[in-house]
């Protein structure tokens, strides 16, 4: 009977979202930053939160963390109301901000120890956590360095260690790979996936679509403070009208031939720069064959050609009207 009760309790806990936001409204005077915004992040997932600058991402995160008040709506974290004084709940949360937030006067180890002490006051309990965090981000040989001597990639790793040393159940990563080298980027992404496999729920924001597609289980796209679309990367791609993009090298495409291309029913957009024709297509099985038939009929000489499926950036562009990096 006890085993059944334990199993039932564990199942109930698993159903409770790590983060539940319902009908959240936040205004700054006449400006509406969050417009009845909804968000549900399930325990154990890596959740991507995407939006152009000014979309409300940072406001939403700050409201979830009880760093901002809001006008109306509901926020729950692990089933509990999130308030500025719910310190037990806050101890279960880790934050890795976009801007590196460490003390230049302290060493790597001292920085991690300080931030860990905000959640774990007893040094005896904290010491092994600090050492584990140092090893986790690969800073063992730099533990006595001050931040000013670290490269950009190593600083990012230190930033992560400071946010995760206390072993939080929910971790917010805000642009953790900005301006780092590819090797450090891969190390950071692998580290996030390891944290997730160890049981942490992750909310991840990034301007790098390939990262989001690589590590996120589900992705929410927001703009103007509103929830626009939610799903896996493939589900989001299937929501939009855009299909493949076709690029064809040709040096002698006439204006008349370009006009013929644009008249094709599956063509959303066609541009030509004198060297390459790029065509954004609607979904279809014979787009490339039909396009080549028009070019051959026009007498255009064709060089290299490539076709690629829609990307998350295409999804973002179609849903928001702007590229994520804007």
Rounded mean pLDDT score: 91
Report the β-strand fraction as a percent range.
25-35%
- Structure classification: alpha/beta
Give me the strand/helix succession: HEEEHEEHEHHHEHEHEEHEHEEHEH
How far apart the termini lie comes to: 57 Å
**Annotation, overall tally of beta strands:** 14
* Overall domain count: 2
Task: Report the CATH superfamily of the largest domain.
Answer: P-loop containing nucleotide triphosphate hydrolases
Main sheet, how many strands, which sense, barrel? 6 strands, mixed
* Global Rg: 24 Å
Helix content: 25-40%
Shape: elongated
CATH class of the largest domain: Alpha Beta
Uncertain regions: pLDDT < 50 for 5+ in a row?
A: 5-10
Number of helices: 12
Give the CATH architecture of the largest domain: 3-Layer(aba) Sandwich
- Trace the largest sheet across and list its strands: 6-7-8-3-9-10
- The third-level CATH topology of the largest domain is Rossmann fold
Note down, in words, how this protein is organized.
- It holds the Pfam family ABC_tran.
- GO terms for molecular function: ATP binding; ATP hydrolysis activity.
- Keywords: ATP-binding, Nucleotide-binding, Transport.
- InterPro entries: AAA+_ATPase (IPR003593), ABC_transporter-like_ATP-bd (IPR003439), DrrA1/2-like_C (IPR025302), P-loop_NTPase (IPR027417).
- This is ABC transporter ATP-binding protein.
- The chain has twelve helices and 14 strands.
- With 326 residues, it is α/β, with parallel strands linked by helices.
- It folds into two domains: 18-237, 3-Layer(aba) Sandwich (Rossmann fold); 241-309, 2-Layer Sandwich (Alpha-Beta Plaits).
- The strands form three sheets. A six-stranded mixed sheet has the order 6-7-8-3-9-10. A four-stranded antiparallel sheet has the order 2-1-4-5, with helices on one face. Strands 12-13-11-14 form a four-stranded antiparallel sheet, sandwiched between helices.
- A hairpin with a 2-residue loop joins β1 and β2 (31-41).
- α5 packs antiparallel against α6 (152-164).
- The chain is elongated.
- It starts with a helix and ends in a 6-residue tail after the last helix.
- Residues 5-10 have low confidence and may be disordered.
